[in-house]
Amino acid sequence: MSLAELQNMFLSPELLERYGPRFIDGLLVTTKLVAISFTLGAVLGLLIALGRLSGNRFLRSFTGAYVYFFRGSPLLAQLFLLYYGLGSFKGFWQDVGLWWFFRDAWFCTLLAFTLNTAAYQAEILRGSILSVAQGQREACKALNLSRWTTFRKIILPQSLLVAIGPL
After folding, report:
1. How far apart are CA 45 and CA 122, in angstroms?
2. CA 119-110-53 angle, 5° bins
3. Mean pLDDT score of the chain
4. How many angstroms separate the Cα of 129 from the Cα of each of 13, 23, 66, 87, 122?
5. Mean pLDDT across the stretch 111-126?
6. Cβ count near 46 (within 10 Å)
7. Would you give the DSSP letter of residue 87?
8. Which residues contact residue 140 at a Cβ distance below 8 angstroms, ignoring those fewer than 6 apart?
9. Please, which residues have CB within 8 angstroms of residue 166's CB and are 6 or more apart in sequence?
10. 64 near 72, Cβ under 8 Å?
11. DSSP code string of 52-69
12. Of 53, 29, 49, 51, nearest in space to 113 by CA
């Protein structure tokens, strides 16, 4: 079989002409979905990571269970649970005013991807926050910096540098 025959078999100009625009539309939808869910997941993941590092036992347990569930179950199962499971409570969502959200597959997919990626990003961020040397925290205490200033100006920038690779 020649190279031209192989190319026509896999890259048929007729098929490309017929389905090419649909592929481009699908690529744009996927890119938009990934960009939004990654961004929202980063914000939620930081909050979950801080909850996992919290001294509050309830908050630490709740965020730990969240990460355990979303990292331990398949994404496809999460998609089905959100779209078909929560979508079956139509009357409740209409009463609350959120039926427009759970009726649309795109929004349910965005929610599932965001919740899933937030669990993974939370573990990455938690590990990167813990990787900052204890001496940095001690130096901030010696300088009498507040916990918020210490986190915002010292801990978070260093931990984000560590987290860039895994993210």
Report:
1. 4
2. 20
3. 90
4. 52, 40, 19, 37, 10
5. 96
6. 20
7. G
8. 149, 150, 154
9. 124, 127, 128
10. no
11. HT-S-HHHHHHHHHHHHH
12. 29
